[in-house]
Amino acid sequence: MKFHDLIKEPKGWGSIDHEVRFSNPYLTVSIDTVITPTRPDGVVWTIAHRKGAVVVAPITTDGRIVLVQQERIPIRANLWEFPAGQIDEAHDHDEAVIRSTALRELREESGYELGPDGELVSMGMFFSSAGFMDEHSYLFAARNVVPSPDGHSPDESESFTGCHAFTQAEFRAMIASGEIRDANTLSAFAKMVTLGIL
After folding, report:
1. pLDDT tens figures, 19-60
2. What is the mean pLDDT of the chain?
3. pLDDT tens across 160-175, in order?
4. 4 in helix, strand or coil?
5. Which of 1, 14, 24, 196 has its CA 20 to 30 A from that of 157?
6. Are 115 and 103 in contact (CB under 8 A)?
7. What is the C-alpha separation between 83 and 108, in angstroms, rounded?
8. Is residue 149 within 8 Å of 64, Cβ to Cβ?
9. How far is CA 192 from CA 96, 116, 142, in A?
10. Angle between the 168-177 and 183-194 helix axes, to the nearest 10 degrees?
11. DSSP reduced 3-state for 13
12. β-pair partners for 59
């Protein structure tokens, strides 16, 4: 199953073999033999393929940072993090699809939405773990969010244990102490600081 068209093969790169070992609607694991600029005879690599995703950093009208707390089964822990989710459509490079997914995830996971003077600011894209997977996430800052009258409505596969609007000082302290350790949230924070949003 092909989840997206983002990965290209520039000069010096090429695929020799691609063998799918596992696949479901969320993940495909393959063993690929790939030619690289430094390995012209090819190298065998195990790759996890996933859909693209969005990460939304919500900021309230009074400057607080909204985080959701979610159970993360692989690490047996609850993490404070920004709302995030996969892009359902296969052609996830379409800007309108990406933005609508970001707004949907914001509302579904946090119960917040853009206020009358709110804006969704694109902050680029990053690869979450490029050593073994092609998953990529589009980062957004959602400025001037307000509680949605519809509340939150997470997917049935998700389990949220909290949602809270933290002051920027509290948010930074949680990063410094290691209480926030989700890669999506840390990446979005770095972008917000670099772009002068925080």
Report:
1. 999 999 889 999 999 999 999 999 999 999 998 999 999 999
2. 92
3. 889 999 999 999 999 9
4. coil
5. 1
6. no
7. 9
8. no
9. 22, 22, 11
10. 130
11. coil
12. 65, 143
The stretch 10-18 carries a mean pLDDT of 92
Which of these, 175, 146, 134, lies nearest to 60 by C-alpha position? Answer: 146
pLDDT at 161: 86
58, 112 in Cβ contact below 8 A? yes
Could you report the per-residue pLDDT of 103-151, keeping only the tens digit for each?
999 999 999 999 999 999 999 999 999 999 999 999 999 999 999 988 7
Instruction: Locate 193 and state its tokens.
Output: 């600081």
Its pTM stands at 0.91
What is the model's pLDDT at position 143? Answer: 98
Sequence-distant (≥ 6) Cβ neighbours of residue 147 within 8 angstroms: 111, 112
The domain segmentation of the chain, as residue ranges, is 14-50, 53-194
Q: Where are the alpha helices (DSSP H) in 18-153?
A: 95-105
Amino acid at site 31 = I
Q: Which two tokens stand for residue 97?
A: 């699809």
- Please identify which residue in the block is written with the tokens 């063998």: 19
Q: Residue 68's closest CA among 148, 124, 152, 126? A: 152
